[in-house]
Each structure stands twice: as C-alpha cells, then as structure tokens.
Design brief:
The chain is α/β, with parallel strands linked by helices. The protein folds into two domains: 9-76, Corynebacterium glutamicum thioredoxin-dependent arsenate reductase, N-terminal domain (Helicase, Ruva Protein, domain 3), CATH 1.10.8.1060; 85-209, Response regulator (Rossmann fold). Helix content is 47%, strand content 10%. It contains seven helices and four strands. It has helices at 9-26, 33-48, 57-76, 96-107, 127-134, 150-155, 189-209, and strands at residues 85-90, 113-118, 158-162, 175-178. A four-stranded parallel β-sheet has the order 2-1-3-4. Helix 1 packs across helix 2 (33-48), helix 1 packs parallel to helix 3 and helix 5 packs across helix 7 (189-209). It is globular.
C-alpha cells in the first residue's frame, strides 16, 4: 500500500485480480473468468464508495463477489438451493438488517441461508449494534455493510425490508414483508437492546412460518 492506509489503483487492480483467480477456482464450471471479473470490478466500485478501511477492500471484494455469484448461480439454476433464502434490507445495512440476518442464522441453527444489504450502505456496522449482539454471544466483527443488488433479491425466497421504502426492486414469485422497526442509529444501548429483542421476536415468527425449528437460544 502506497501510504499505509489505502491501495493505489494499480495495487488494487492486482489484488482484485488475485481474488478473481481464487473465485474462478471456486466457481469452475459455473462461471467463466470474464463474468467473475466483471462482477468483481462492479463489486469493487460499489464497496469503495463506502469502505471505512480501504486496506480491506480486496478481501471485502472477494466476500461480496462470492455472495453475489452464489445468488446469480441460484437464479440461473446452476446451483441448487438447499435451504430457504431470506434477504433483509434496510437503509444502511449497519443495524436492523444485520441484526435480523445474524439472529436468523443463529436461531435457525443454519437451516436458513441469510443475506442482508442496504439501499444506501454505511461505512461500518453500528458499534452499539455490535455491542448488543455480543451480549448474546453473536460476533459481528467480520460483517460489513453491502450495497443492494438485483441478484441477491432475485435469489431470495423471502425479502424483508425495514425502512428502505421503494428502494428494493420487486420481482414476481417472491414473498415481501415490511417490518416497521425503529432505527438503532444514534440510540443508546438500552434502546438498541429493545430493538434487538423486537427483531428476535419477529425472526422467531418468521422461522415458524417457514417451518424451521428454532434453536440456539
């Protein structure tokens, strides 16, 4: 890194190319390298608009592109769905949707595949949200706000929005729910805990509707 905190354009290009080769090995026979490169470049541009820590952009590009490739492969039918797919969307993907996604993963015991995204993603997870989730033993340290894209919406069976209005595209055959839940941004930990418990209750109801037994406590 040229200045110790961010990649130069040339360095970033090299690092992203390394991640593309890694993804090409993972998705061999599913996607060609041209498709992976295009999606990685697009993901890089989206993430660089919001990334708080530029030095982590190449790793985030890998993780975000991988998630999108899985979603696209599911939409195209080249990868099967072994579990129900649920997408949580809020404005910044820094609070409500992150809590909902982690709680769904935890309470379902991994029987539901979960994604989350934001219509206008923030640069980092809300620290109060991370604190409230850590009280339950749930670690958000590797989570990061992600931009909303059509591929993850199309791959979902259930799309749950929280305060993002009409930002989420509508596709036929999806179940759409709108959860009216307070935004934890700028709130003290006591309020964030209340929001967390409201989301937990709604997630438990959702899992029951999906026929998934609640586990994890």
């Amino acid at each position: 890194m040229a200045d110790g905190s961010a990649w130069s354009e040339a360095e970033l290009h090299i690092r992203v190319r390394q991640q593309v080769r890694r993804l090409a090995d993972e998705f061999e026979g599913v996607f060609g390298i041209e498709t992976i490169q295009r999606l990685a470049d697009e993901s890089s541009a989206l993430l660089r608009q919001n990334a708080r820590l530029p030095e982590y952009v190449p790793l985030l590009v890998y993780r975000y592109t991988r998630e999108r490739l899985h979603a696209q492969a599911q939409v195209e039918g080249t990868m099967s769905k072994a579990q129900p797919e649920v997408l949580f969307v809020c404005v910044h993907n820094a609070g409500r949707s992150q809590m909902a996604a982690v709680l769904t993963q935890h309470l379902s015991g991994g029987k539901v595949h979960v994604r989350s995204a934001g219509s206008t993603p923030a640069s980092e997870i809300n620290p109060r949200v991370s604190e409230a989730m850590a009280e339950l033993g749930l670690d958000l340290s590797e989570k990061f706000p992600k931009p909303l894209t059509d591929d993850v919406v199309q791959a979902a069976d259930v799309v749950i929005t929280m305060g993002c209005g009409d930002a989420c595209p509508i596709f036929p055959g999806k179940r759409y729910l709108d959860w009216v839940i307070d935004d934890p941004a700028g709130q003290p930990i006591e309020v964030v805990r209340r929001i967390r418990e409201e989301i937990r209750s709604r997630v438990e109801t959702l899992l029951a509707e999906l026929g998934v037994a609640t586990s994890g406590g």
